[in-house]
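This section describes the prediction task in plain terms. A model, or a person checking by hand, is given the sequence of a single protein chain and must write out its three-dimensional structure as a string of tokens. No templates, partner chains or ligands are provided. The sample shown here is typical of the held-out split.
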Amino acid sequence: MSQGASPISPTGEQWAIAHGHQEAVVAEVGATLRSYTLAGHDVVDGFGPSEWSHAGRGQVLAPWPNRLGDGRYEWRGVQAQAALDEPALGNAIHGLVRWLPWRLEASAQNVVVLRCTIRPTPGYPFSVELRIEYRLRRDGLVVTTRATGAGDGTAPFGIGFHPYLRAGSGGAETIDGASLVLPARRRLLLDERRLPTGEDQSVAGTELDFTAGRVIGPTQLDTAFTDLRRGADGIARAGLEDPATGRGVELWVDDRFRHLMCFTGDTIEPERRRRAVAIEPMTCPPDAFRSGRDLIVLEPGESWEGTWGLHPH
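The expected answer:
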């Protein structure tokens, strides 16, 4: 690097978009939502340009979200073995594209469109073309994904996103006093490796019931939710709000996203612990490559599309 040159960001090129008092930055590595603010207040708990994403912060989770037990699966006679990047639990986690560079397709003041081609590897011996559009509108951020089968055979596919939502002014306060809404009537039972046992359980009347919205308090969540309650428009809405100020954010998903993972950050680095809540839209549950539950099957040339967004207030 020449004298006086700016250091290269660990997450590559940075694309800033804006609309009114909203600003967001999307990074080249992983098509990661690095930051999103409204009138200078943090909507998501992101990270700086000289940092890289820890604990999934702002990342795209594909071609599978969450955990894949032993990293091993078989798809229509094809054997695959992914790297165990959660070695303590013996899992592969959050797919592959979050560490890959994405290429810019288009950009404007309030929109950026990125592409990534997943090519065959031992962990995912299939080809898929991904296109993600981040668009700021008057009412918030809209994220639209298109996945297209790019090989000569079918490909299993799932996708998720990992925003850490903030309530309040963005200081160091914890989430304990924040009010959480989760439109989920059931949760998946998980084993000691955080993998589904194959059973669901109603949340009604339990500590995990946030359907009507309530203060989080000491509740710890690293929980996979499903059976999402939707409006007449097919949209399911979650949210986080500071009751003292009324400031918060709504996360919404269309009917392509059938699951939400909710994580209160109790096991991440101490300085960021319980500072935000990760509400993760997912098309399928953890370990879907082995269970087959809600798995997307992409035929050659076939496309799938899904949309979610954030509405800060």
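For orientation: The longest strand covers residues 128-137.
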